[in-house]
Amino acid sequence: MAEYLIKNGHVFDPVQGIKGDKVDVAVKDGKIVKNVSSGAKIIDASGKTVMAGAVEIHAHIAGPKVNEGRNYRPEDKLFTYTPKKKGSRMAGGFSIPTTFKTGYEYAKMGYTTCMEAAMPPLFARHVHEEIKDTPIIDEGAYPVFGNNWFVMEYLKNNEIDNAAAYVAWLLNSTKGYAVKVVNPGGTEAWGWGLNCLTVNDPVPYFDITPAEIMTGLMKTNEYLGLPHSMHVHQNSLGNPGNYTVTLDSLKLAEGIKANNKFGRETVLHSTHLQFHSYGGENWGNFESKSKEVMDYVNRQKNITIDTGCVTLDETTTMTADGPFEHHLTELNHLKWANVDVELETAAGIVPYVYSPDIKVCEIQWAIGLEIALLAKDPMRCFITTDHPNAGPFIRYPRIFKWLMSADARKERIESFKHSAKMVDATLLAGMDREISLYELAQMTRAGPAKSLGLGSVYGGLAPGMDADVAIYAINPEKDQKPEELEKAFSSAAYVMKTGTPVVIDGQVVSNGNKRTIWVDAKVNENPQVMRDIKEKFLKYYSVTQGNYDVTNHFLSGNPRVLEVDATK
Amino acid sequence: MNTNMTKTVTDVTCPFCGVLCDDLEVEVSDDGKTVVEVYNACAVGSAKFLHTAAKDRVTRPRMQQEDGTYKEVTYDQAVEYTAQMLAKAKKPLMYGWSNTNCEAQSVGHEIAEKAGAIVDNTATVCHGPSLIAIQDVGIPSCTLGEIKNRADVVIFWGCNPAHAHPRHMSRYSIFPRGFFTGKGHKGRKMIVVDPRQTDTMKLADVGLQIEQGRDYELLSAFRVAIRGQDLPDTVAGIPKEKIYEAVEIMKNGRFGVIFFGMGVTQSLSKNHNIDIAIMVTKDMNDYTKFAIIAMRGHYNVTGSGQVMGWQFGYPFATDLSRGFARYNPGETTSNDLLRRREVDAIMVVASDPGSHFPISSVREIAKIPSVAVVPDINPTSEISKLHVPVAINAIEAGGNCYRMDNVPIDARKVVDPPEGMLSDLEFLTRVNKRLGELMGAA
Q: Which of A191, B65, B296, B377 could form a disulfide with B18 if both were Cys (CB 3.0 to 4.6 A apart)?
C-alpha cells in the first residue's frame, strides 16, 4: 500500500491533545505512522483543517424499516438523483437515501465509520445485505434487546449469567455490535396495542419493569465486557413532560462500573436526548428541560449521550418504538407503517415535517442545540440527528454551523414564525457558547469512538490508529463565515479511508475498502440457555433455528471482529 | 453393502410460494446429485424438488432458428448474445426476478444500470397495487410468528391459502398453538371474504360471499360498522347483520390480522381496495391490535422489492433508461411498456410472462430481441430468441430470499444442478462482465 504525508494542515486531534497546531500526518499501509519514506505522496493541507474520520454513533441507515421507508416514500427521491459515473452507482433519496448514496454522502462529509442503531435480530440478514451494499464506510449494527422475551424472562429472575449467554449467542448469530434498548418493555406491550410510559410500568404478562430491564442489561453488558455500553432509547419518547422519565432512566446507571478492555469508561449511552428533554404538560405549554437533564449528565460521569438535533426538514421518522409511531400518526395523520417482530421487537415509520413555522418544531430545534451547548465534557456528548428521525444526516454541517456560531443561531431564531414564543420556552437565545473545532473533533470523532470501545483505532490520528482522515477547507487562523463552515463540512477537501483516498475536492473517487464490524463474545457453556433457545425456536419462532444465523457470506469482504472473552 | 445410501438435508427452504417454509427435510442420494424424497412440504413444493431429477430437462442454452426450432448453443454464446442485445438496445426491459435469489437480483440491477434498462418484477401483475396503496397510506403489519403467537382473529380477503399457500394456515395463521394462543384454531375466529365458496371459506367461522368486484364497498361498510354507524340492508350482497357480526368479532379480538390476495389487488378498484383495507386495519388499532399482510405469491418476489428498494428506492417498475432511477406505475410497468411498444429488447429472468401477461404483451415479446433465463421450458422460453436454462434456485443453488412478511431466509443448496449447468447468478455475472467490456469499448 502507498505511503502518504499530509503536510502543513491545522490538526485537531483529541486523542493526542493537538489543538490546531501544524503537525504532519504520516500514513502507511492503512495506518497512521510516525514517519514515512521520502517516496510518500505529499498531500498539501496548508490553510486547512485536518481531523480523523468522523464516527457516527447512531443512525438508521440499513435494514427493514429503513428500506420500507424508501419503498413507501417514492416522493423522497424527487429531484435527488445523481447518475451513475465511472466507479460509482446512480444514487438518490433525501431522508432515506439508497445504500450507495448513504456511503457516498457520509464519505463526502468526512465520516468513515457508522453504526446502524437498531437491528431487529430476525431481520439481521437484511441489515447486513444493505451494509454490504453501502460503499466506503465501516459499519456495525446494534441488535435490539429491550423487548426480547429471553432477556425479559432471565432478567425477571435476575439471572445475569443466563442473560449474558443469550446476548453473546445473539450477537454472534446476528453479527451484531452492541446491546441496544428501545422503549424497554413498551414495544412488547405494543404487541397488545399498549405501552410503558414510565420506568415502573410493568410489561404485560412478563411482569418486569423497564427499570429492571435497563439495569439488568447494563449489568449483563459489563458482565460480558462488551466494547460499547448499553445504548438506550428511553421510555416516553417525544411526550411533553418526559424529562422526568429520562432522569429516572439515567439514574439507573449510578453505582454501575464499566468493565472492559476497550478503554470505555461509561455504562450507559442515552441516545437522541433531544426527544427526551421535554417539559410542559401538553403541546401548548411545551418547553425545554435540557438544563435539568444536562445538569445531571454533566455530574454523572459514567453516561454518554447524543443530541438528536432537529434539522428543520421534511423527513421520515422510524424507530423500534412501535407505540410512539402510532401516537405520531394520530398527531400528524401521515402514512403509518408498522412491523411487530415475533419474540423480539417492533418498528414503526411515519413521515414528519419539522417546520420552522410550527412552534413545537422550533422548540425541538432549540433543545437539540442546547444539549450540545450545555455539555461540559465534549468527550461524553456526541452530535447526531438520529438520522432520519430529527433530520437527515446530510445536514450535519448545518448543525455544526449552528453550534459553532451564535450569530447563525440568532439569525435562524429571528426568522422563525413563533420566535418570541420559542425564546420563552427555551434557553438557546441566551446562550453564547460557540463550539470550537477541537470540541467538534471530540463530539464527532474521539468521543463516540471511545464510547464505542473503538478509541484505539478510530477517531484519532495517533500512530497505530486506522488512517481515516478528513481535510476541510477551513483555516482556523482566519475568521470564517458560518455559511463557509457549512459548505466546507459538506464537501471535504480530502478524505482517506484506511489509507485509501476516497474523496478529493468533494467528489467520491473510490469505493474504499469497507468493513463490517461485529463483536464475537465468548461465554462459558450454558446448556440451559441453549435448551431455551432450542425450545423457543421449535414452539414460537416462524423460522428454524438452523436458518437464523447470519453467515459470513453476508458480511463485507474484510470484517473487523472484536473478540470478547467472558468465560469465567 | 447397501448401494442405496441416502443423506438428509434439514432446514431446507421451499422455493414455491411466499410462505417460504424453511422446515423441509430432503433426502438426497449419497452422491448429492438426486433428490430422493421430500418431507414436510406441500404437494406443490414437493413436486418442485422431485422435478429436479426429471430426465427431460433442458441443460444447455438454445437459440431459436428461422423455422421456429431451437438449436443448442454454448453458455459463452448465450452470454455474448445477451450482452450484445442489451448493449445495442436503447430501452431494454429486464423483467421477472421473483424466482431467484437476492444475489442474482443484485447483479441484474448492475446490468440494468449499465444497459439503461427498466427493471420490473412480477408484482407488476400481482401485488403491485398493494405496493402503490402502501405508498399512499402506509401499512400496519407484523411477522407471521406474531400471528402464530398472538392472533385470535384472522381474516382472509380475496385469497385462498388452502390452494395457493397450502401450509400458511398450518404453519402460521389458523392451526398452530403459539405462546399466547395455546388453544390453536379453537381459540381463533376466522373470517373469509370471497366471491366463491372456496375450500378456505369452508373452514371459516364467518364466510362472506361477496359480489365479485365490490370489495371496496364492503371494506367501506366495515369502516362504517367499526364506527357504529348505520348501514343499508345489504352491501356488496352481504346482509348488514353479517357485517356487524364480523366487525364485533374483530373488535372483541386481542390481536387481529387481515391477509389479502389477488382477489382484491387485481379486481376492479385495484390499489384502492388495498388502500381502504389498510385504513380498516388502522381504524381497528383504535380498539385493539390489528395488522395486515399481503399474501405474496412467488417465493422471492418480496426480495426483489427489497433489493430494488435499497439500491434504487422503489419496489418495482424502476426505469433506469435516463441514467437515474424513475418510478411511475402505468408508465414504467412492463405491460404498459410492451403494449405501447416502447421497449426494443427484453430479458426475462426467473419468471413466466408468457403465461401471465395479456396476449398483446406476449405478442410484443415474440417480436423483439428476447432472452429467457428460466430453468425449464415454459411459454416464455418458447417465444424467446434465446432460452438460457439455469439451475433451480433454493434446490440446486443457494441464496437469500424474503418471505411474504419480509423476513429474510438464506435458502440452502440441496443437490448439484445437472452437470455443466450454470445458476442464474453465475450466468448474470458473466453477462455483467461482458456488458462492461462492450459498454467500456463503446
A: B296
The whole-model pTM stands at 0.97
Could you give phi then psi for residue B139, rounded to 5 degrees? -160, 115
C-alpha dist (Å) from residue A374 to A314, A345, A403, A560: 27, 33, 11, 35
Of B23, B138, B407, the CB nearest to A544: B23
ipTM at complex level: 0.97
Cβ contact (<8 Å) for B143 and A551?
Answer: no
Instruction: Report d(CA A161, CA B280) in Å as an integer.
Output: 45
Q: Report the topology of domain A52-451.
A: TIM Barrel (3.20.20)
CB contact under 8 A, A335 and B137: yes
Whether chain A has a CB inside 8 Å of the CB on B39: the answer is no
CB of A64 within 8 Å of any CB in chain B? Answer: yes
Does domain A3-51+464-508 fall under CATH 2.30.40.10? My reply is yes
CATH top-level class of B62-126+299-441: alpha beta
Chain B contact set for A191 (CB, 8 A) = 146, 150, 255, 289
**Interchain pair A126, B306: CB under 8 A:** yes
Q: Test B282 with A336 for CB contact under 8 angstroms.
A: yes
Of the candidates B102, B179, B254, which has its C-beta nearest A540's C-beta? B179
CB < 8 Å from A in window 87-126 of B: 102, 106, 113
What's the Rg (C-alpha) of chain A? 22
Q: Is A236 left (phi over 0), alpha (psi -120 to 50) or beta?
A: left
Residue of chain B nearest A344, judged by CA positions: B146
B159-193 per-residue burial string, b: 16 or more CB within 10 A, e: under 16:
bbbbebbbbbbebbbbebbbbbbeeebeebbbbbb
Of the candidates B139, B146, B310, the beta carbon closest to that of A70 is on B310
> pLDDT tens digits for chain A (568 residues)?
689 999 999 999 999 999 999 999 999 999 999 999 999 999 999 999 999 999 999 999 999 999 999 999 999 999 999 999 888 999 999 999 999 999 999 999 999 999 999 999 999 999 999 999 999 999 999 999 999 999 999 999 999 999 999 999 999 999 999 999 999 999 999 999 999 999 999 999 999 999 999 999 999 999 999 999 999 999 999 999 999 999 999 999 999 999 999 999 999 999 999 999 999 999 999 999 999 999 999 999 999 999 999 999 999 999 999 999 999 999 999 999 999 999 999 999 999 999 999 999 999 999 999 999 999 999 999 999 999 999 999 999 999 999 999 999 999 999 999 999 999 999 999 999 999 999 999 999 999 999 999 999 999 999 999 999 999 999 999 989 999 999 999 999 999 999 999 999 999 999 999 999 999 999 999 999 999 999 999 999 999 999 999 998 899 888 999 999 999 7
Domain ranges, ordered by start, for chain B:
6-51, 62-126+299-441, 128-294
Domain B128-294 of CATH type 3.90.1150.10: no
**Every domain range in chain A assigned CATH 2.30.40.10:** 3-51+464-508
Query: For chain A, how many helices (H) and strands (E)?
Result: 18, 26
CB A168 within 8 A of CB A221: no
Residue B261 grid coordinates: 390476495
What is d(CA B5, CA B36) in angstroms, rounded to the nearest whole number? 11
